[in-house]
Every structure is written in C-alpha cells, then in structure tokens.
Amino acid sequence: MSEVLHEALGAGPPAGVVQVTLFVPSVDRHGEPIDQAYWSEQALTTFGNLFRGATAFPPGRGVWRDDQRGGVLVYDDTQMVTSYVTGDILGDHEVLKRLRAFLCRMGREADQGEVGIVIDGTYFGIIDYNDEVEE
Amino acid sequence: MKKEDKSRIAEALGASRVVEVGPKTIGGPLDLLALREEFNQRLRSSGGRPTDPAWTVTRLVPFKEDNWTRLQDLASEIGVSGRRVGPAQVAALLIESSLEELEVGQWQEALEASRSAPLRSQPQAAEAAQVTYNQFDDWVQRGWIVPAGRRGHERSYGADEIVRARWLHAISRMTTDIAAMANAVRNCDLSARYLVVTDAENISTVPTRSHLYRLLEAPGSHLVIDQLPERRKLLGLPPFPGDSNEEFRVRRAV
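Output (structure tokens, whole complex):
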C-alpha cells in the first residue's frame, strides 16, 4: 500500500521524524480575544521558512493556569501548528534563534503569560521574551 | 533526540519550563518511520535473516494474542519499504527501547543527585575514590583532578572529580604512561554514563547502553566503566540488582 502511494504521489523521502508543535492561543493572558488567524498564519510562515512545511489544525478547547496572576485559569480555543523536521535542522543555532525570536514576538505582541512549543515529546515553556526582536 | 540536544534547545529558546509530555508511543506513520530507520541501521545479514549482532540470547516469551497481532502488523508495515523484519524482532527493539528509557531515568537521577551533594574534603574524596591520599594529591598537583572549592589550604571536591579519580585509578592499572591519558580523562563528558578505554590508548564516553554495544563491536580490547554504580555508592545508595561491578573488560578480535 505505502509503496503504491509513494510511487503514485511521486513523493521524495520524508523531511524528518521529529515533531514540532506550537500552540497558538485565541485569547491573551487576561482572557481577551486576540487575532488567532493572524498568529496561525505567522506561525505557518515561520515554520515554512525554517522547517520547509507545516500544518495548522482546527482549534481545540484548552486551558492554562496563570501563576503570575494568582493561578487564574484562562480558557481558550488553542490551535496547533505542526511540522516534522530532521534533527539536523534543530541542531542549527541560527534556526533556534529565529524560532525563539518569533515565539517571543507572539508572546509579547499577543500578551501571553507563556508561549508553549513541543519538540519531540518535550514541552518548552517560554515566559521571558521582552528583549527578543525578529530580524 | 538525545537529552543533551533537548537541553541545548531549551537554552537556545530561553525556556523557563521543560516538561516531558509523555512516553514514546507508536502512534502514527512517522513513528513507524523512526522504527524502520532504527532497524535499517542495526540489522546485519550474515547469510540468514538479518539480525542485530548484539542480540545473542534467545528466549521463549509468551504474548497476548492481540499484542502478537499488533507486532505482526508493525513488522509488515516496517517491511513495506524497509528491511523485512519479524514480529519478535519488533518486540525485541521495543523492549530494548523501554529498558533504555528506564535506565536513562535512573542514570539522570543519580547524576543530578550526586552533583548536588555536598562537596568532600580531600581526604574524604581520596577515600571515596579508593586511592591513597598521596596519590590523589599527586593528581591534584598535576591538574588532572580539580577542586571545586578552596578555603585556605583546604580543598573540596564534587562527585565528578571523585569519578575522574576512579577512572584514573582504573587506567593506571592498564598502562604505565597514565600522563598521556590523563588529559583525555580531563576532557571527558561526565554526563555520559559509560567510559570506554580502547587498547589502553583511546578514551571515549557514551551515554547509553545501545551506544556502548555499538562501540564495543569495534575490534580491540575495551575497558568499560559504568558510572551509575559509583554515583549510587557516593550517594550512599545500594547497587541495583545485577550491578555486580562498575568495571568490565571486553576483547574483540581484529
């Protein structure tokens, strides 16, 4: 089956097997709506440039506890943007620097308490992003 | 992806929280690709069905029927565009992977706990390394062992330096020219669990048992030192069942 599909699609080798997933929120840290469509597009553009491709999945209901605001629960309709990449790409410091710059911009401009990204089954939560600027 | 790679990513991203989301599962086509790649790298043919040369023990193991069916499905999926493998080979690789994850957890715990344990005075460090005070002091004077702290004439040492002294002691029993090896020991990455000395002249460290087995496939005479029993001893913990000795030797014909 896979061989037939592979041939019919004229597919090249897979880009990679390390899954990178970014959570794009629908609200800011105070529960106010943000322009989620804009940030999904921005995430797709960033992932496309850095990782060659990405997919945005439809929103799912999510919740986040803001410890810096006394543990208040912030509910939102989180969207996931996913890429499959090779380990080599994630070993490139410049790629990680550009990824961090985007995550910080989203955190800062969308007023997020934390920006979360999952890489190969590990969640990386970023809360300090005030000094990062995208090139 | 290795733990050290994830640490590097965490640092580069400026992550304040790093959380393992969950154990690896074979949940989709890309997990199968990873499994297939692992088989492609490891299986070798010497006439019969390709196998991993390190799999030298054969045992009869019962399975639930549905689990065996699942292993057969995985084996046929992997065999579609990779090497042909049997369900028992898939089971062997999955068991190995689970055991390795378990061991990696135990190792990381012992490494972190021993590194955050209180420093020891030089006499205590020499005793923990099972070398004489004078021998330990000589290595300190030569810069092969480095104190973590000094107060007046008193020096104190962390677990890493005690492990290094244990390694130097083991190497000194293999060669008279320890000076040539000492700098290599100094530069070793102690977060990797195993030290391997090959032919009494090449030193390397490897993080996991499967890396170790691959390295031991190379011809030569290998001394292997496992840090885990030593670190547990430093923490006052008993060895795990089956941990008979932290040192063992492997000889491979050229």
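DSSP finds ten helices and eight strands in chain B.
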